[in-house]
Amino acid sequence: MTHAPTVPRPIVLAVTGASGAPYAVRLLRALVGAERPVWLIVSTHGFRLLETEVGIASLDALRDEIGAEGWDRWVTVFDDRDRGARPASGSARTAGMVICPCSMGTLAAVSQGTSRSLVERAADVVLKERRPLVLVTRETPLSLVHLENMTRVTRAGAVVLPAAPGFYHRPTRIEELVDFVVARVLDLLDVDHAVGRRWGEGETGEE
Question: Where does the signal sequence lie (predicted)?
């Protein structure tokens, strides 16, 4: 008797209004490419960010960017205003959540557990259920308020991953800088991938 392959639990991906839309689009594309179900939540400011930074003005345009076939198979979209949607419940089992990019306002809300939106409620759920939560923050410089909020969410179990690409791999294209950050997000979510280049790869013929 053959058994159908087990579909991995979905990863919640939230896009909020910090600068960093290319990270969000690349991460979504990588998750779809890895055939991981994605529960996607884009805040109002997240949509504004996508349009401003990468020219994606709607969900349909984002679907076209990712590819209709992969999108329709792996991506489920939820309205950020719907705090009763599936990501809002701990009984809906997920593989964790990433907020990419994560604004300082969203960080503050998550650190305080205010849950004013689906993004914030979903993050609250992931923390209380002891699942992975990755916050890809993008702000500079950081105030003491920002730093204290980062400390608070880290103590609660989240991982703060600033969108701060390295340069030791000698990037020559913006895409390589984006991949640097996205690769580390995927590692933290335990997603197999071939995004970017790991330290030492290419020096001894490794790929």
Answer: none
pTM listed for this prediction: 0.92
Is 17 annotated for ligand binding?
yes
pLDDT digits (tens, 9 = 90+) for 71-122: 999 999 999 999 999 999 999 999 999 999 999 999 999 999 999 999 999 9
Residue with tokens 């995927």: 186
Is 55 flagged in the annotation as binding? no
Quote the CA–CA distance of 46 and 14 in Å, as a whole number.
Answer: 9
184 conformational bin, left if phi > 0, alpha if psi -120 to 50, beta if neither: alpha
| Secondary structure letter of residue 190 according to DSSP | T
To the question of whether residue 44 is assigned a binding role by annotation, the answer is no
184 is in an annotated binding site: yes
Answer for the pair 159, 152: CB distance below 8 angstroms, yes or no: no
- 19 is known to lie in a ligand binding site: yes
Task: At 46, list the tokens.
Answer: 């997240």
Query: For the structural domain made of 11-188, what CATH number should be given?
Result: 3.40.50.1950
Please give the Cα distance from 24 to 94 (Å, whole number).
19
46 is in an annotated binding site: no
Dihedral over Cα of 67, 26, 19, 15: its sign: positive
